[in-house]
Amino acid sequence: MKSKRISFNDLSQYMVVISIVLVFGIFAVLNPNFLSPYSLQNLLTEISPLVLLAGGLSFIIFTGGIDLGAGAMVSATCVISGLYVSRFGNGILPVMLVIGFFLGLLNGVIVTKLKIPSFIVTLCTQNLWAFIALYFCPNGSVAVGMDFRKEIAWMTDKVFGIPIIFIVAIAAVIVLYIFQQYTSSGRSIFAVGANIRAARLAGVNTDRAQIMAFVVSGACSSLAGALYAYKQKSAVPTIGDALTLSAIASIALGGTSMAGGRGSVLRTSVGVVTITAITSGLNMMGVDPLWKDIIIGVILIVAVYLNSDTKGRDIIVK
């Protein structure tokens, strides 16, 4: 009888649980204050916008695509939210959802109708979103006026010790999970990522599924930008510069295949908690910020390796 060969790939289904236990355990030993109520509340506040960003971006990766401009879109919508919350009040949140819808639609239409790889399209549109952010805030961050801070202060208030911004993010994740698991559109997105040719033969409108993935990601990225404006109480044109890497690392750490067809927004959310816990723990230890990106990059490489198959399918860029 042939003995079963044990592969590192077998660890992928347990990786998200193993990683979060290790991260919290290590930092709790190195710094007991890491698990204090104050630190945990700050962690929940910090992860909330990134949960939205990574949750939406997951759907593009479910199709086997990528959005390199998600972080820049967060910067643009953070700036718009911070500058115009004085005019629209809390109505800026649905406005950002509509803007994100159309920004995602633009990406999706270009990818599907012009048949250009998503990484090229989003690499180009990334510059457009960054231009918008810097055009409105050429001199750096602009704080929300003191007269209007009371209108947005509720987002960082707490209910039974839980930040409202975290409750909003979790509610959005639940909606995304329901869309992923229980709608035909959600299932068609996975079908495209698993095998786009087979999906077409099965009658799936693959263009519509890909466009829907970009629309969901755009809406989530824009809402994440608004949440950053609420959290920071200012328009920050560079807030999203490092977020794309963190979001992709969180998605990979959550067990999503970079080739598409497999993953879950719930596991992505756990990946976000892990990545944010790592950066928060390093900050509390006074580690040079440059090391954070290096560490997250290493985590991304390991996560992609553990989630890849051994037949080379994951190297295909769709």
Automatic annotation (TrEMBL):
The GO molecular function terms of this record are:
transmembrane transporter activity
Entry keyword Transmembrane helix? yes
Q: Where are the transmembrane segments?
A: 12-30, 50-80, 92-110, 116-138, 159-179, 211-230, 242-260, 290-308
Primary place of residence? membrane
Q: Quick one: signal sequence residues?
A: none
Give membrane topology per the record.
Multi-pass membrane protein
* Keyword Transmembrane among record annotations: yes
**InterPro entries per record:** ABC_transp_permease
For this UniProt record, give its keywords in alphabetical order, as a comma-separated list: Cell inner membrane, Cell membrane, Membrane, Transmembrane, Transmembrane helix, Transport
Q: Where in the cell is it found?
A: Cell membrane
* Gene Ontology cellular-component annotations: plasma membrane
Q: Name one Pfam family in it.
A: BPD_transp_2
Please report the name of this protein according to its UniProt entry: Autoinducer 2 import system permease protein LsrD
Taxonomic lineage of the native organism? Bacteria, Bacillati, Bacillota, Clostridia, Lachnospirales
